[in-house]
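Long-time lurker. I teach an intro course on protein structure, and each term I like to show students one example going from raw sequence to a predicted 3D structure in token notation. This year I'd like something fresh instead of my usual example. Would anyone be willing to generate the tokens for the chain below so I can use it in lecture? Attribution to the forum is fine with me.
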Amino acid sequence: MNALQKTLAILAFVILVSQTIRHAYLLWLDPRTSVLDKYDRPLQDEITKAQSLDELLRRYEPIRKQADEARQQMSKQGKTPGFEERGVEPFKSESALHEAITEWERRAKEIHEVRFYWLIGLAFFVLGAFFYRKISRWGGISLLIAAFTEFIYWTSPTFFGMNTREFDRLLVNKLILSVVSFVLLLIAIRLNGIFAEQGAAKV
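-- Reply from a regular --
Happy to contribute to a lecture. Here you go:
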């Protein structure tokens, strides 16, 4: 069993360290500007600086009305907005704000899921530590595996996202929980004597 525990501990160690570094990079070091920003900057600045979903909605509503009016005018002329029209105002701003609102809602849901399932993992961790030391090592190790599976999966890197406050909040949550998961891994390694010498390992 000791060889299995060592292998699993090393894998968890490597994964948690790697993804924690990536979260920190995305949050503080990842370049978030482009040479094309000068063409879209005013609207993108509003999206990036929005403090809440309601703020984005307030910006979206008048743009949506303008876009609906433009569609009505085109409909009267026997036209429908095509691919070319989507790149001009007000359709361009409407599309960007709609995407930002959808992204915000998706990230808010993901933050809730990350916190909930990480706490489920924490419950598995506590039960696993108890079982490992008091009842059954196999039962304990099974619960600890379940715990770190939850920790690693729900704090895994987010690869795509718009520059919104909610995306940054998701990264902060994942970074903090990744660090805490790493600390819990070190605690589990220490308390269970996983890398202790064979003669000194706890039974």
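Some talking points for your students: The chain is about 75% helix and 0% strand. Residues 32 and 125 are 37 Å apart (CA to CA).
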